[in-house]
Amino acid sequence: MLKPLKIGNLEAKLPIVQGGMGVGVSRSSLAGAVAKEGGIGVISAAQIGYDEPDWDTNQLEPHMRALDKHIKRAKEISDGGIIGVNIMAVTNHYEEYVKQCIKSGADMIITGAGLPMELPQAAAGSDIKLVPIVSSKKAANIILKRWDKKHQIAPDAVVIEGPLAGGHLGFKPKELVDIDICAYDDEIKKIMEVVKPYEEKYEKHIPIIVGGGISDKEKMQHYLDLGADGVQIATAFVTTEECDADIRYKEAYINAKEEDIIIVQSPVGLPGRAINNAFMKRVKAEGRIAPKHCHRCMEACNPAETLYCITEGLVNAVKGNVDDALLFCGADAWKADRIKTVKEVIEEFTK
Ligand SMILES: Cc1cc2nc3c(=O)[nH]c(=O)nc-3n(C[C@H](O)[C@H](O)[C@H](O)COP(=O)(O)O)c2cc1C
Q1: What pLDDT score was predicted for residue 318?
Q2: Which residues lie below 8 Å from residue 125, measured CB to CB, with a gap of 6+?
Q3: Ligand 1 centroid vs 203 CA: distance in angstroms?
Q4: Which residue lies with its CA nearest to atom 2 of ligand 1?
Q5: Largest CA distance in the chain
Q6: Residue 125 C-alpha to ligand 1 middle, in angstroms?
Q7: Whether residue 167 has its Cβ less than 6 Å from ligand 1
Q8: Mean pLDDT score of the chain
């Protein structure tokens, strides 16, 4: 019998968090469906307004409008379920995104792809739950120490994302060669030890949620046995009817073979995992694909030098232009064999 996942005063019936997936892969349809089934649904804030009419000309408003729309819609679909928003730390206007999530009624903010040092300040005065994503003991130490010293606060939960995850990865490229996933259990235990003193100091339980490569029930049980309170699963939800991406994105997972899944360098400055499609082969052959138009989505990106435009690649993915797309995926994406419903996927993990 699976235990519910309690994060402060929130309680999800199932210890499953659906990982946020940008651009547009997890918006209200997927997040709402997962939350309705008793998990925690997570909307990705990354370029969420990519299909708003003024997206090309306006850096902020289309995204704030789309965030509001999708948070409210996911809440409605979920029928009282828990909805979080994933905001990457590298996002331009990070603080405005946080404030919009609070205003629109999201239950939690989850931040990875960088260290969310100023998240507590951006969310001050609200009881929205704050959840950093870390991949190492070192990152956990830095964030928890800073939040404690500067903001007198501890996270409401911590997501530990391992090396088999999809999207951007918090590892050096050399750590992603011949991954020994069993060895990563030691790092998970070390991160749990980093969190413990803050539980004592703030007199609250800080749930640990482990993600990355959890593609079946046995893997989920492994992390629960290791002491995790819940798991974060993303890739397995891409090939669902409710996933917000175009059907051709989902078919790319179904058609992928294990050897088609590679580590790529992302303009964010982190390695990522994706399908080795025509686009990735072109980047490799040509060295660089210059952006057509810059959306100023990230502080760290220089459009004159970037290898390719990540926003262009990810928007092409969600729209189904798969040959011109960056198709992010987890290491087990090749295991997908058909389109399922969210209910079916959740039952496979829980029944
Ligand atoms: C298509 C895709 C897009 C993703 N986008 C994001 C993102 O925008 N922000 C983020 O923090 N994590 C992102 N991730 C990581 C997931 O949220 C999740 O933690 C991870 O993929 C879990 O591993 P799994 O996919 O093997 O289940 C993405 C993953 C995938 C597969």
Answers
A1: 98
A2: none
A3: 31
A4: 21
A5: 55
A6: 29
A7: yes
A8: 96
Average pLDDT estimate for 59-76:
97
Q: What is the DSSP string of 88-101?
A: -TTBTTHHHHHHHH
Residue 287 confidence (pLDDT): 86
Does residue 215 carry a pLDDT above 90?
yes
Q: Which two tokens stand for residue 119?
A: 């998240």
Alpha helices in the chain (DSSP H): 28-36, 61-78, 94-104, 119-122, 137-151, 181-202, 217-225, 247-255, 278-286, 310-319, 342-350
Q: Which of 16, 17, 18, 21 to mutate to test the pocket of ligand 1 (most atoms within 8 A of CB)?
A: 21
For residue 211, the CA-to-ligand 1 centroid distance in Å is 9
Closest CA to 253 of 169, 318, 340, 329: 329
Q: What is the pLDDT of residue 43?
A: 98
Of ligand 1's atoms, which has the minimum distance to the CA of residue 133?
11
Beta bridge partners of 134: 160
SS3 state of residue 299? coil
pLDDT at 268: 75
Residue nearest atom 11 in ligand 1 by C-alpha distance: 112
The response to whether residue 165 sits with its C-beta less than 6 Å from ligand 1 reads yes
pLDDT per position as a tens digit, 168-200: 999 999 999 999 999 999 999 999 999 999 999
pLDDT for the residue numbered 116: 93
Task: Give the tens place of pLDDT for each residue, 77-94.
Answer: 999 999 999 999 989 999
149 by DSSP, 3-state: which? helix
| Three-state SS annotation for 31-80 | HHHHHHCCCEEEEECCCCCCCCCCCCCCCCHHHHHHHHHHHHHHHHHHCC
pLDDT band at 296 (very low <50, low <70, confident <90, very high): confident
